[in-house]
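Annex B.
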Amino acid sequence: MAKPRTRLMDIAQHAGVSTATVSRVINRTGPVSADTRHRVLTAIDRLGYERPASERSGAATLIGIITPELINPIFATYAHAIQSEVARADALPVICSQTPGATSEGDHVEKLLDQGVSGIIFVSGRHADYRGDLSRYQRLHDKGIPFVTINGARDEVPAPDFSTGDGMGIEAAVHHLRELGHSRIALLGGQSHMVPAARKVEAFRHVMEQLFGEKDPIVIETFYTYEAAATATETLIDQGITAIVTGSDLQALGAIRTIKNRGLEVPGDISVVGFDDSMLMTHLDPPLTTVRQPVAAITNAAVQALFAQLHNSTVHRGAFIYTPDLIVRASTGACPR
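LacI family DNA-binding transcriptional regulator: predicted structure tokens.
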């Protein structure tokens, strides 16, 4: 009869370390690097074992992560990446998702403050809205609560912001379509009172004038949702476009649905470019050409900046822009004759 495996052996194999290392983490009896400790604790959690009392987070440093929603895959991707970085830094992440008509960003901030939060990371929050009330960010600054923002730098917000180069992504997409022979290109984006959407529109207008001399290109502003994009694409098809650059992968999916419902092909009749490269985009039919946000680089830098503030280090305000990549797949092709 085979000898049953021990808990230490299971954890060690899952974490890729020795059983002695697992023992040192559990019993805190020797030096272990932060990365190794994180791998061991992750293995314990994933295997369903109870963490040792010394590793439970009753008195952990609380870090709030506030996102607009989790339905859009890119926000879920950011939330997951941030919480992983926060946990690696030996703190407890608390993810807060806004609910339209119910729980707002302000509600979450107040609740986090009541819970004694040490710092907050805002993802595409009110800081990214030109119409947004920015007073809460100044109040956090005045209270001495460290925070950083992602994807929405504003000069008025007293914190560093870490953002995708939206304009660079749009320009890369249009250059790619031009190389395929397209000139009737439309932008289907978000509402330009939001910083990332405004950057996309500005870049699209600039590159269309630069490449084609078109001073008033076709731009539709709508919500970053599947349904809104599907409806807006009806108008674009009627206008005779041969390529659509969208502001999000969800919008790209909506555009593709309408194109196919109209009896047209992607990319045979109309090419489509997404934005985000969220999960499963490579498994679509056709796989989606899209602009990949550098999520790992952005979240790593944002978390480091937040913890630098927690450790009383000087952190520069302002916008830190990260270059996206255009991932070419099968949803873009040669312009039809």
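The chain has three domains: 5-47, 62-164+294-323, 166-293. The longest helix spans residues 195-212. Further annotation is deferred to the next reporting cycle.
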